[in-house]
Amino acid sequence: MPEFAELKNDLLLRTARGESVERPPVWVMRQAGRYLPEYHEAKGDNDFFACCRSPEIASTLTLQPIDRYDGLIDAAIIFSDILVIPQAMGMTVEMLDKKGPHFPNPLKSPTDGQYEELMARKVDVAKELDYVYQAITMTRKKLKGRVPLYGFCGAPWTLLCYMVEGGGSKLFVQVKTWIYKYPNESKRLLQKIAELCVEYLALQVKAGAQIVQVFDSWAAELSPTSFKEFALPYLRHISHHLPSRLKQLRLDNVPMVVFAKGAWYALDALCNSGYQVVGLDWLQDPAEAVRIAHGRVVLQGNADPGVLYGGRKAITTAVQEMVLGFDGGKRGWIANLGHGVTPFVDPDDLKFFFQEIHRLATTEDHPSTSL
Fold first, then answer.
1. Are strands 94-96 and 100-102 parallel, antiparallel or unpaired?
2. Which of 215, 303, 341, 345 has its CA 20 to 30 A from that of 334?
3. Is residue 338 a contact partner of residue 280, using CB atoms and an 8 Å limit?
4. How many CB atoms lie within 10 A of CB 141?
5. In this structure, what is the dihedral angle of CA atoms 326, 327, 333, 334, given to the nearest 10 degrees?
6. Which helix (H) or strand (E) holds 337?
7. Which DSSP state fits 366?
8. Rounded Cα gap, residues 371 and 362, in angstroms
9. Four-residue CA torsion sign, 5, 6, 12, 14
10. What proportion of the chain, given as a percentage, has pLDDT over 70?
11. Is the pLDDT at 368 greater than 80, yes or no?
12. What is the reported pLDDT for 272?
């Protein structure tokens, strides 16, 4: 286990453990990304996955928002991608300009030959994803204890979507065909992915990650019944088996976050799924989420990322609504957006969002909704 500097800002980790805090911690998903001009300078001519595979570049990109918003954000998240697990499983994934991730040879059916190969292949995530662990260790050392570092992975359901759709989708025809026509084969693959996620996250913690998040980005494509069958069991597998794997590695447990985008109907179940923190998208009403959670978990979220296009007044209103909805935020809330920062956001508007969280959530009383 590498040695790192003592953590100077442990606000987010204390919050994730359910402690009362002086103010809610804040960070945002995709805070290291293409909305920042310095991102493009550091990326240069490298393609997206080349940046992920370079520990030096990934570390540099991770630290950019920490440096730009010094003192305003309370966590870093390693620059990587959820699709490194399918890559480690032997599938080719490309990142196409203006299109996003692309699998040239997606899974077609359980009898296409590739499915059997994937299921039979022994995947060594320690070897295949070593560049991620190197980036995490390098980043922890460069952070010098300024803020904690998130590791992450994609959830099994979301990774299955990409592996059979070949990329993003509007209709999800292929993955719906899989789960309804080949449910048993789908579940076998989901289980294999879940087991790889456990090992991948454990090795991220070994490398230096202090909190981990599981992104189920396509959860909204499932009905409540299908979510219980094809997503929730595998999210639970991760939360139930990661602590025991960390114990085997003689590592301390870290807080675990689950973010099932669009699965508003499953909030109650997610609060009982073994994670200490549940991420919310902007479709959830904060006060209603607090009522449903009833103190079982810490909540993370959930401003509409689109509010960052709306100017300072709209940002202030959104922050006020969150602070009120999350009951002032002195316990049980990690402030965030309801999804990642989107392209073309002005970095100064995001800075204002952070500043408003600090201003409005550190007051003794709940802020007024009048401007």
1. antiparallel
2. 345
3. yes
4. 15
5. 70
6. strand 333-337
7. P
8. 18
9. positive
10. 98
11. no
12. 98
- Rounded to whole angstroms, the Cα distance separating 369 from 339 reads 24
333 three-state secondary structure: strand
Answer yes or no: are the C-beta atoms of 15 and 333 closer than 8 Å.
Answer: yes
112 is written with which tokens? 């296409």
Peptide bond into 336 cis (omega under 30): no
* C-alpha to C-alpha distance for 16 and 144, rounded to whole angstroms: 21
Element (H, E) at 102: strand 100-102
Mean pLDDT of 110-133: 97
Sort 290 into a burial class: Cβ within 10 Å, 0-12 / 13-18 / 19+. middle
Strand ranges (DSSP E) for 162-307? 211-216, 256-260, 277-279, 298-303
Q: Where are the alpha helices (DSSP H) in 108-155?
A: 114-120, 125-128, 130-143
What is the pLDDT, as a whole number, of residue 363? 59
- Burial, 106: exposed, middle or buried (Cβ in 10 Å; 0-12, 13-18, 19+)? buried
- Measured at the CA of 82, the angle between CA 249 and CA 129, to 5 degrees, comes to 45
pTM: 0.96
Q: At what angle do helices 312-325 and 286-293 cross, to 10 degrees?
A: 20
User: Residue 226 corresponds to which tokens in the numbers above?
Assistant: 């299908």
3-state secondary structure of 259: strand
User: Which residue has tokens 């196409």?
Assistant: 96
Which residues does residue 315 pair with via DSSP β-bridges, in sequence order?
Answer: none
What is the torsion angle, in degrees rounded to the nearest 10, for the CA atoms of residue 275, residue 276, residue 282 and residue 284?
80
Please check the confidence at residue 162 and state whether its pLDDT lies above 50. Answer: yes
286-303: per-residue pLDDT in tens?
999 999 999 999 999 999
Which tokens hold the place of 82?
């959820």
Amino acid at 181: K
The conformation of residue 167, written as its DSSP 8-state character, comes to B
Structure token digits, residue 181: 């026509």
Which sign, positive or negative, has the C-alpha torsion 55, 77, 307, 361?
A: negative
Give, in order, the Cα–Cα distances in Å from 18 to each of 244, 246, 258: 21, 21, 16
pLDDT in tens, 222-247: 999 999 999 999 999 999 999 999 99
